[in-house]
Amino acid sequence: MRSIWNGAISFGLVSIPIKLVNATENHSIHFRQIHLADGGRIRYRKVCELDEEEVSGGEIGKAYEDADGTMIPITDEDLAQLPLPTAKTIEIVAFVPADEIDPLQMDAAYYLSANGVPAAKPYTLLREALKRSNKVAVAKYALRGRERLGMLRVVDDVIAMHGLLWPDEIRAPEGVAPDSDVTVRDAELDLADALMDTLGEVDMDSLHDDYREAVEELIAAKASGEAVQPSESEDSGGGKVIDLIAALESSVRAAKKSRGEGEGEAESEEDMADVHPIKKKATPRKTAPQKSTPKSTGGKKSTASTAKKTTQKKTTSKSTSSASSSKGTSSANSAKKQTSSGSRSTTKKKTAAPRRRASA
């Protein structure tokens, strides 16, 4: 790989000659502007606003535009005379845990390659020290005319450097969060956790740019003169009010199906009911009338006979209830008679006893 910068890593009193190599590359497809009438390419030409003549690259310099529009020329010699200790040096200023670096600060990534045989020993020393400490190095360096902030870490057996934005270049997220207070229920969180567990981890190497591949296929088809068939775009449902619980449940089922975790398993349905027990809203009995009854005479007769049987059952139950009530009444009356006769006989016995005592 071609190096884009040569310098050294300043590690205390240790200096490690290195070469800076791009660790990333852009695979985006670039288009040219053309004249629709004849297909001629449209180019940008650098023209001076004063004389309206095209200017070559050797005649172009730098200038800073002041607030009032005044142009202040700045030459490369002026910039070269500025004190910039990191002009050719990646100066390590601290070693910190990796989680102290805000991912929002991450910028371009580079590989640091040892420049020459003498650099192998100190390079390996720094690499192994970073590995054992489980820390990253925060450094300052200069690239493309400005001083930058960087983070050094180990990738396999190579020291990589991530360009970092300066802390004052990170904007505060003011006015970004939802304005209204939103309450998230435990059932929704449980389903979100279930979806996260189902999706699980992914092999990063398996991810690719589907859009870029589609553009490449489109270009190949147009180049060969083939007709391009428009693809059906799926409705993302943007702007629609959705049932969050139903969407989460469907997402969990779709994720399990895509991973081949047993399509149609009863276990998944039971799990959904346990996690979100709001199946009261669903009224499956209302769907019963949708079953069509055969439009035949036999169906009407069966309905009529069913109604007659129901009427007979009602009549029988009424007669049974009346009979049981009459029996209960008669038994109650006989019980009353027995009770009254018993009380009379007891009274006679009580009155007869004192008379015997008197005669005695």
**Strand order across the largest sheet:** 1-2-6-9-8-7-5
- Major sheet description: 7 strands, mixed, barrel
Which regions have little confidence, pLDDT < 50, spanning 5+ residues?
A: 266-284, 286-360
Distance between the termini: 144 Å
Tally of strands: 9
Shape: extended
Helix share, percent: 25-40%
Mind telling me the C-alpha Rg? 45 Å
The string of secondary-structure elements, in order, is EEEEHEEHEEEHHHHH
Describe the structure in your own words.
The protein has 360 residues and is an alpha+beta fold. It has seven helices and nine strands; from the N terminus they run ββββαββαβββααααα. Strands 1-2-6-9-8-7-5 form a seven-stranded mixed β-barrel. A two-stranded antiparallel sheet has the order 3-4. A hairpin with a 2-residue loop joins β8 and β9 (158-164). The chain is extended and about 65 Å long. 7% of the residues are buried. Residues 266-284 and 286-360 have low confidence and may be disordered.
Structure characteristics:
38% helix; 360 residues; two-stranded antiparallel sheet; 19% strand; alpha+beta; seven-stranded mixed barrel
Short description:
The protein has seven helices and nine strands.
What is the topology?
Layout lengths: L2 E9 L2 E9 L39 E4 L5 E4 L1 H5 L8 E9 L8 E9 L5 H14 L1 E9 L2 E10 L2 E7 L21 H14 L10 H14 L20 H15 L7 H10 L21 H63 L1
Parallel strand pairs: 1-5
Antiparallel strand pairs: 1-2, 2-6, 3-4, 5-7, 6-9, 7-8, 8-9
Helix pairs in contact: 3-5
